[in-house]
């Protein structure tokens, strides 16, 4: 087998970009989708493929996957990052807002997974890592559409893991807490047991581990990277 190949969606900045840089440093060939154009610039810097487009567009994702397969003929890792969905008071969210949240935080994963899974099954291996949120199971009123959609993503992840584990195709979620790609406030910092914001590079390191052979027996999991903010039952 030649070089391993990773696709990163919404990878132009923040945690997605950090994951792309870390995977490139670990020897992966990199393909990045970003709506801002920053993904193309990052991919060029990393010697990879960049596509400007949206993970809410099946056509844009298809373009990314097609170009990746044309160039390298395989996909070993898919990292699904996301943009930002609507934030309002719970009952102020309209039907349109909820639909938008599902698009941004849930269907962004489903669309990419539909395209990439047949490739991974055919090559008898692959890993999918979804950057979710620490508030997926203990929701915060600050992030209502994110929390609800990503609770659904956790269920989807378990269903996917059950179905494709025997094909050696794994799926896991990373649950970041307060990360330095967000504006920092002292109140939030003090609410974290470690009393600091996490670094995008720490999320990227967790993504890189889940993409590595060392994580080959981990699937269907949601892994908190939040400085102790949330606690497992």
Automatic annotation (TrEMBL):
It comes from the Bacteria. SUPFAM superfamilies: NAD(P)-binding Rossmann-fold domains. It comes from Azospirillum argentinense. InterPro entries: NAD(P)-bd_dom_sf, SDR, SDR_fam. Belongs to the short-chain dehydrogenases/reductases (SDR) family. This is SDR family oxidoreductase. Pfam families: adh_short_C2.
């Amino acid at each position: 087998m030649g070089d391993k190949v990773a696709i990163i969606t919404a990878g132009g900045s923040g945690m997605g970009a950090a994951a792309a840089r870390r995977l490139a440093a670990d020897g992966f060939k990199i393909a990045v989708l970003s709506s801002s154009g920053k993904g193309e610039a990052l991919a060029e810097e990393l010697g990879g493929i960049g596509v400007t487009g949206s993970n809410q567009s099946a056509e844009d994702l298809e373009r990314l996957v097609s170009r990746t397969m044309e160039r390298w003929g395989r996909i070993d890792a898919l990292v699904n990052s996301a943009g930002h969905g609507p934030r309002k008071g719970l009952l102020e969210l309209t039907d349109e807002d909820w639909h938008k949240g599902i698009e941004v935080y849930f269907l962004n994963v489903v669309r990419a997974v539909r395209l990439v899974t047949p490739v991974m099954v055919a090559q008898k291996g692959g890993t999918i890592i979804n950057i979710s949120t620490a508030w997926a199971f203990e929701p915060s009123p600050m992030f209502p559409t994110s929390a609800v959609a990503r609770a659904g993503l956790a269920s989807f992840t378990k269903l996917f893991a059950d179905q494709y584990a025997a094909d050696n195709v794994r799926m896991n979620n990373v649950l970041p807490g307060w990360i330095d790609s967000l504006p920092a406030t002292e109140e939030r910092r003090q609410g974290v047991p470690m009393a600091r914001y996490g670094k995008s590079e720490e999320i990227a390191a967790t993504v890189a581990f889940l993409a590595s052979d060392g994580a080959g027996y981990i699937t269907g999991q949601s892994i908190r990277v939040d400085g102790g903010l949330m606690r497992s039952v």
